[in-house]
Amino acid sequence: MTIDQAREYTVIVNGGSGCFFQPADPKATYILTAKHNIVNAGDRITDLTHFQYQNDHWEIFTIPFDNLETGVNYFPHPDKDIAIITVPRIEGLNALYKLIDLDTNPEEFWLLGYPETRRNGSPDYKIQWFRSDKGIGILGTTENARREAHIPGNPDLGEVRGHSGGCILKDAGNKLYLAGIQNSMAQAVDEQLGRIEFTPVEIFNEIIEEHPDKLSLLFPSYLSSFDFLRGEAFDLKAGLSQDNISYTKGYLQHKCKEVIDNEFTPIGIKNFFQTRLLIDQNKGEELETKNIWILWLEFLTILNIVKKQVHTVDNLSDIFDQYRLLFSDTNGDWCHEIPKLVYSDYKGLKKGGLVIVGVEKPPEDETYIIDGSIPLIAQVRSTQDRDQLKIDDGFGFPFDEFKFIHIDFFKKESIIKRHQEYAAINKDQDLLDKLRVVYGEVFTD
User: Fold this and answer.
1) Would you list the DSSP string of 19-68?
2) Range of the domain at 72
3) pLDDT at 312 over 80
4) Residue 92's Cα: distance from chain center in Å?
5) The dihedral formed by the CA atoms of 273, 274, 276 and 277, expressed in degrees to the nearest 10
6) Would you call 120 exposed, middle or buried from its count of C-beta atoms within 10 A (0-12, 13-18, 19+)?
7) Are 306 and 436 within 8 A, CB to CB?
8) In angstroms, what is the C-alpha Rg of the chain?
9) Which of 17, 25, 74, 397 meets the CB 3.0–4.6 Å disulfide criterion with 165?
10) How far apart are CA 50 and CA 5, in angstroms?
11) Are residues 252 and 144 part of one domain?
């Protein structure tokens, strides 16, 4: 992401700022802001504006808004300086996720907003009001559930006023993570060290818990149902040979309905296993990103095909004891994840169990099954810290105990690269028999 792209999530809220966030409710968009932005304007909205980059320039949009009604479209926290404003769904704001762990990597955040020092001249120049402060560092906790942070350059109150409600974000390449909403300068006398206070995004859940019938949780709508992801699963692309696999693609997407109908949900799986689903368990924020749940929908569908039965939530633990889908949101090749894979969670996995590595990028060398004898694994084996292994007693080095396969084996290797074998198949049972054969090459009882 770029600062300009992040700017689209930043809102002018009266004399302050706010941040768009897409909740589980697919019909609403939330604006997270500081409550005093509303209180100081007489408990009303005088300005609710955002910008979008279209046609090679920034365009200004006034957000449609009815009269402010507490408990209807405005939800202030009773004790803390935060509030949620609800507006009809604004599409295209799907790259922002919550960041709960603020201590593992507390540096290099952004503060985005519309400070008062930029608000001069005609309203026609609102586009110039935006300011980004880069290199924000997260510090310790203060009172009332807030955290302290530092802005490089040590700006004083006059330079920060109007940033209230602004987003504190971290750039993660193709996505953004929201740490919280800025509230004020740090409460200190005659101190000008660029210290601010902000409310972590998780505290907004306290508002939602007060209004469970009016507000939905702060997570993407697709976490509530795999049905939102069905159209993106098995997105098989074979170029000029696409016609050869069109029937197969349609069939696999249809088979996804078995998973949806049997009450599997991303949020249910997430709550059950938490970071055990991840290659790097220090990156719990990845559990709300879309790719991991597209891969889980594909995995559960493949499992139904191979095992000739429709699995349900009741045997989710049994599935986890036989197979693991370990995810990483890496932009690189899966070979770079091998050192982290060693220390992933294999507790309960049977000997010889299948570990499916879920990453978005196909293997650069088109190797879909890891051979434990490759030099990189030999190197990791010799330097492993046995005390850090998460594996059952009596088991040794994970790459000696389990079979590791890239998720794309079931798509690119098994279907796309063998597209000619599917060209003449136009009956479901024939295709099902074919898929059971090719998938059965790696699944074992």
Assistant:
1) EEE--S-TTEEEEEE-THHHHTTTSS-S-EEEEEEETTEEEEEEPP----
2) 3-210
3) yes
4) 15
5) 90
6) exposed
7) yes
8) 25
9) 17
10) 12
11) no
Exposure of 430 in the CB half-sphere (CA atoms within 13 A): 9
Looking up tokens 């079931």, which residue turns up? Answer: 410
**419 within some domain:** yes
Element (H, E) at 428: helix 428-439
The closest of 185, 183, 186 to 200, measured between CA atoms, is 183
Supply the DSSP symbol for 350: P
CB neighbours of residue 380 within 10 Å: 19
* Closest C-alpha among 199, 107, 108, 111 to residue 159: 111
For the chain, how many structural domains are there in total?
2
Q: In what order do the strands lie in the sheet with 403-406?
A: 323-327, 354-358, 403-406
Q: Which residues, at least 6 apart from 75, have a Cβ–Cβ distance to it below 8 Å?
A: 83, 84, 85, 86, 207, 210, 211, 214, 215
Q: Write the CA distances from 354 to 329, 342, 357, 396, integer angstroms.
A: 20, 14, 10, 16
Nearest to 141 by CA among 198, 213, 101: 198
Residues 187 and 225 in one domain: no
Q: Tell me: the pLDDT tens digits for 394-429?
A: 999 999 999 999 999 999 999 999 999 999 999 999
Amino acid sitting at position 356: I
435 domain-assigned: yes
Q: Are residues 151 and 136 in contact, defined by beta-carbon separation less than 8 angstroms?
A: yes
Alpha helix (H) residue ranges in 100-230: 157-160, 205-210
| Phi, psi angle pair for 410, to nearest 5° | -80, -5
- pLDDT single digits (tens) 352-391: 999 999 988 888 888 899 877 778 888 888 888 999 999 9
Same domain as 315, residue 192 = no
Same domain, 190 and 233: no
Strand, helix or coil for residue 363: coil
**Integer Cα distance of 260 and 226 in angstroms:** 6
Q: In this structure, is residue 144 part of a structural domain? A: yes
